[in-house]
Amino acid sequence: MTEPLDPAMFDGCSDIDLPIRFRNKWMGKILLCLEDGRRRYSELQIPLKGITPKVLAESLRALERDGMITRIAYPGMPPRVEYELTELGRSLREPREVWCKWVDAHVHELLRARMEAEGDLRDLNAS
Fold first, then answer.
1. DSSP output for 20-72
2. Taking the model in full, what pTM does it have?
3. DSSP state of 77
4. Nearest 5°: CA angle at 111, between 116 and 91?
């Protein structure tokens, strides 16, 4: 049995849209939540504060379709479903770690560039 996910595991993360991401801002976080083993849908909701049930379900379906995760359904009432990384999904661990280090090293530059671009857009709108 895997340890419960920490509800605060993403609290220190910036919510800015990063320049490189999986289809949406949640997919990388979902993959991270599954690194230690199988998880139920309700377990994934705990650290993914702000994700709607619809977006979580869509993201899980997309990750399954792309071969990153498997969906394991167990019969019963109510039915139980768990999600787990595939080998393909696990192969993203090293690139993700490199990407996270890059973001940590350059987050201030990214934010400064965005603020400058937004300032330019405001100047254009004022004309």
1. S-SSSTTHHHHHHHTTTS-EEHHHHHTT-TT--HHHHHHHHHHHHHTTSEEEE
2. 0.70
3. S
4. 140
Cα 68 to Cα 56: distance, rounded to the nearest angstrom: 15
| Domain extent listing, the chain | 27-126
Instruction: Encode pLDDT of 69-120 as tens digits.
Output: 999 999 999 889 999 999 999 998 888 888 878 888 888 898 888 888 888 6
Other C-beta atoms lying within 10 Å of the C-beta of residue 58: 14
Residue whose structure tokens are 């899980």: 60
| CA 6/CA 15 separation, integer angstroms | 18
Task: Note the CATH number of domain 27-126.
Answer: 1.10.10.10
Rounded Cα–Cα distance for residues 109 and 116 (Å): 11
Which stretch of DSSP H or E encloses residue 107?
helix 93-126
